[in-house]
Inverse folding.
């Protein structure tokens, strides 16, 4: 079966709950869409507002508080919010990658400690973090063992140890200093556990972002090709192979559905680092190639984007006067009517929490963006 670019776009939007908001529990929504990048505490809230009918921020507050949704370092070695039942297998999938990113980095190797000595700390760390502690408190505890090396040892452990972040209150549940708690068995996953985790993560990725290529999964996770190839082989009877534009080999779940090509895609205002813009290797699915350098910056920042007919057409930001929507091309009246309606609703959500959300990233606008049209929607 061969799929068009439009069909692939609609499939992703459908599975990401972006074709139509759903009346769904916040934890189940997070499970459905695999993971929410949570580098910025506000982003999971804005992401779910785009996807859940009648979304109430307090519901996500509660899900974080009672640990139905957990925040931890996972895919791409960055913070994600995931369903609690997915955390253990996802961590097992990513453990080797997370561990290698720190234990073979000069910042750790300069301590003179071996990876095995770092691993040997995991049980004591898990015991100490049976109750929540801030990062400085953990570092103080590690200092008792490693003195001047404590900062670099903790820098490594906080990335690959089985921990999650503990919510600390409004406006977006998490704030500095980070608070940590141990979450899983204090050991490095075995090879069978890691392989099982990769399989589960691959299935979750296809369920949330498919059809997708092996390269797409590698971009989303940073897992090595060998682990991905092994998982694809072990899941062969549960997957189907499809062909995309340029005859790209794609994989999907055998029972997955692709929407009809004429399905409309409503306007959306995505948060920074929305996963739909980070789940595929090349531009074109949701981000036109010419706009990718504008919204995915070289330092890794991914700007809050406006979607028109399912694809990025510009960016948005909060200002003192309201939400500023800026398009990279001229948009028609129907598109602007839909976007401004969404902006008015998002302004209402932000008003009670953080009207100047993402304020620290305003320098990207200050440096200049090729804006065709701008509209400010007052809160």
């Amino acid at each position: 079966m061969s799929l068009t670019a439009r069909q692939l776009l609609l499939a992703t939007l459908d599975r990401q709950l972006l074709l139509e908001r759903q009346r769904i529990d916040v934890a189940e929504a997070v499970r459905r869409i695999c993971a929410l990048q949570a580098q910025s505490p506000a982003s999971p809230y804005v992401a779910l507002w785009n996807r859940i009918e009648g979304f109430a921020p307090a519901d996500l507050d509660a899900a974080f508080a009672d640990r139905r949704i957990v925040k931890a370092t996972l895919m791409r070695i960055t913070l994600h919010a995931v369903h609690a039942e997915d955390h253990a297998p996802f961590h097992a999938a990513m453990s080797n990658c997370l561990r290698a990113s720190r234990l073979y980095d000069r910042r750790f190797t300069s301590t003179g400690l071996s990876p095995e000595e770092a691993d040997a700390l995991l049980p004591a760390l898990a015991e100490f973090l049976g109750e929540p502690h801030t990062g400085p408190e953990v570092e103080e505890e590690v200092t008792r063992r490693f003195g001047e090396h404590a900062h670099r040892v903790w820098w490594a452990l906080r990335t690959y140890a089985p921990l999650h972040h503990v919510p600390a209150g409004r406006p977006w549940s998490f704030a500095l200093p980070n608070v940590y708690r141990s979450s899983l068995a204090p050991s490095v996953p075995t090879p069978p556990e890691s392989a099982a985790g990769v399989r589960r993560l691959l299935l979750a990725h296809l369920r949330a972002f498919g059809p997708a290529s092996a390269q797409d999964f590698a971009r989303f996770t940073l897992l090595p090709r060998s682990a991905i190839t092994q998982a694809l082989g072990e899941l062969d009877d549960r997957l189907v192979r499809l062909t995309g534009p340029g005859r790209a080999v794609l994989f999907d779940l055998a029972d997955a559905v692709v929407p009809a090509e004429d399905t409309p895609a409503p306007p959306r205002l995505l948060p920074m680092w929305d996963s739909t813009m980070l789940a595929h290797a090349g531009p074109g699915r949701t981000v036109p190639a010419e706009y990718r350098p504008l919204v995915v910056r070289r330092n890794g920042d991914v700007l809050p984007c406006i979607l028109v007919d399912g694809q990025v057409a510009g960016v948005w930001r909060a200002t003192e006067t309201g939400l500023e929507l800026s398009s990279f091309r001229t948009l028609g009246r129907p598109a602007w009517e839909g976007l401004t309606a969404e902006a008015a609703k998002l302004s209402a959500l932000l008003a009670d929490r953080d009207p100047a959300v993402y304020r620290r990233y305003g320098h990207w606008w200050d440096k200049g963006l090729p804006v065709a049209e701008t509209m400010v929607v007052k809160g």
About this structure: The chain is about 40% helix and 15% strand. The radius of gyration is 21 Å.
